[in-house]
Amino acid sequence: MAKGKKTVFFCQNCGYESVKWMGQCPGCQEWNTFVEESVSEQKTVGNRRQREPSRPVSLSDIQMEREERMMTGTEELDRVLGGGIVVGSLVLVGGDPGIGKSTLLLQVCRQLALAGKKVLYISGEESLRQIKLRAQRIGTFNDNLLLLCETNLTDIRKTAEQQKPDMMVIDSIQTMYNEEVSSAPGSVSQVRESTGILLQIAKGMGISIFIVGHVTKDGSVAGPRVLEHMVDTVLYFEGDRHASYRILRSVKNRFGSTNEIGVFEMRNEGLAEVKNPSEFMLNGKPEGASGSIVACSMEGTRPILIEVQALVCRSNFGIPRRTAAGTDFNRVNLLMAVLEKRGRMNLSEYDAYVNIAGGIKMTEPAIDLGILLAIASSCKDIVIPDKVVAFGEVGLSGEVRAVSMAQQRVKEAQKLGFETVILPKVCESAIEPADGIRLIYVSTIKEAVNAIQTGI
Ligand code: TYD
Ligand code: MG
Predict the structure, then answer these.
(1) Rounded to two decimals, what is the model's pTM?
(2) CA-closest residue to ligand 1 atom 16
């Protein structure tokens, strides 16, 4: 083998590095994900010495030249980013193929271009014609948006130097390559190196860069997991491909809070913002059916009301079947055990299916009370009235525990025309009584079940 070249094995799923091939990755426990890649050994010492070391500076000496953030004009995205795009930041947008990443970013480009910013959209996946076809569905564009089909990062850097755009989109990182790395585009070392170059462009020239990354199950393409620590912000675009809404979730953000979500709806003419997700999620809630209740979950700073459904029916086999869609399966099992032991409800002979309607995933403990009441309602065949919301965390001794931001949750329920809220007793002091909404404070699950049994 040529001197200065060596090969290592990378897990294509998580980027774990190993000198020999392994069947199972110790990092992510996936099977058969190791691929051999050659990496060039860095010719370090000599080169580094010639460079002047950078000098430390005090905070007050740092100059803020341009305005800090650019507003995208899409409120949902601005909020997820923590209040607009930070100049010179590197944002990774991950998500399944076909979920709408390219559409979202093209729309952002369009809006920034209309606001007078210079935007460069670089695609390594689609031809200019294909991009134009998509653009025609979205709306009218102006000349501030430039398109480029290119996958070579050296050329991309040159173009960026010439054009000096305010923002750049790389669609997608898996198609980009750096000539100095010999492995194929999409491999872990290639993706890592490419992101390194983009990081230099972003920080060095003050260009905000959005990188698209695919997440694939089979592990043939390096997932964006490897890059998560390199970029400033990681956004995940998720949702059921069969449903029209999409959720943009921030999982890492150096410039804002995480766990903010933005809700969009995929329409014929691109993605539209959903300003009031609760209304959207509650669409189609059945009336007068048992096993259904509205719960409230905080997503970042925003309360979202969702419908929790449960179906409890007699089991035909020795071992009852339990499933949970849209929430944590183990949590559902735990809540059923609490209901059995502390609520004196015999569930051992019943199958139970729990579902968060709309296909959204919710894991906040505040929806515990909603899940529990839905199960109780279905088991006893009690219809919970339509205008009831429940929230609260359930503990193992059957107590209903406090949740954060109770006041906001109550406000959201009131805004959407709900009349009754079942909530933890411990939250009483945090809530100002309001007209037009009845607050039922409960301290144990027994009280909560009684509340729905005796009719609200
Ligand atoms: P796309 O942005 O290409 O997804 P990604 O880049 O994440 O792979 O969008 C894919 C889907 O969105 C495609 O199946 C068609 C649909 N779509 C619409 O429904 N309406 C539209 O206006 C556009 C542009 C796309
Ligand atoms: Mg795409």
Answers:
(1) 0.78
(2) 100
Q: Does 98 share its domain with 230? A: yes
User: For a pocket test of ligand 1, which of 266, 269, 271 has the largest count of ligand atoms closer than 8 A to its C-beta?
Assistant: 266
Domain presence at residue 138 = yes
Supply φ then ψ for residue 340, to 5 degrees.
Answer: -70, -45
- Is any atom of ligand 1 closer than 6 Å to the C-beta of 95? yes
Could you read off the pLDDT of 220-270 as tens digits, one per residue?
445 556 778 889 999 988 877 677 788 898 888 988 877 788 889 998 989
Share of the chain above pLDDT 90, in %: 50
Q: First vs last Cα of the chain: how many Å apart?
A: 78
Minimum CA distance residue for ligand 1 atom 14: 98
Our answer on whether the CB atom of 269 is closer than 6 Å to any ligand 1 atom is yes
In the chain, how many domains are there?
3
pLDDT, position 61:
85
- The rounded distance, in Å, linking the Cα atoms of 128 and 113 is 18
Q: Is the CB of 270 under 6 A from ligand 1?
A: yes
Q: What is the pLDDT of residue 288?
A: 86
pLDDT in tens, 109-139: 999 999 999 999 999 999 999 999 999 999 9
Ligand 1 atom closest to the CA of 171, numbered from 1 = 6
pLDDT digits (tens, 9 = 90+) for 279-302: 888 888 888 889 999 999 988 778
Q: Are residues 290 and 348 in the same domain?
A: yes
Structure tokens belonging to residue 102: 């390219």
CATH number for the domain that contains residue 353: 3.30.230.10
Mean pLDDT of the region 326-339: 94
pLDDT band for position 199 (cuts 50, 70, 90): very high
* Phi, psi angles (nearest 5°) of residue 31: -100, 145
Quick one: 293 and 248 in the same domain?
no
Q: What is the residue range of 85's domain? A: 69-275
Residue 299 CA to its chain's centroid (Å): 10
Q: What is the pLDDT of residue 131?
A: 93
Residue that is last in its domain, among 244, 275, 306:
275
Q: Is residue 48 part of a domain?
A: no
d(CA 24, CA 319): 33
Domain boundary among 249, 275, 301: 275
* Ligand minimally distant from the alpha carbon of residue 123: 2
Mutate to test the pocket of ligand 1, among 92, 103, 170 (most ligand atoms within 8 A of CB): 103
Tell whether 346 and 438 lie within a shared domain: yes
Per-residue pLDDT for 102 more than 90?
yes
Question: Distance between CA 398 and CA 342 in Å, rounded?
Answer: 6
Judge whether 352 and 276 are in contact, CB under 8 Å: no
Closest ligand to 108 CA? 1
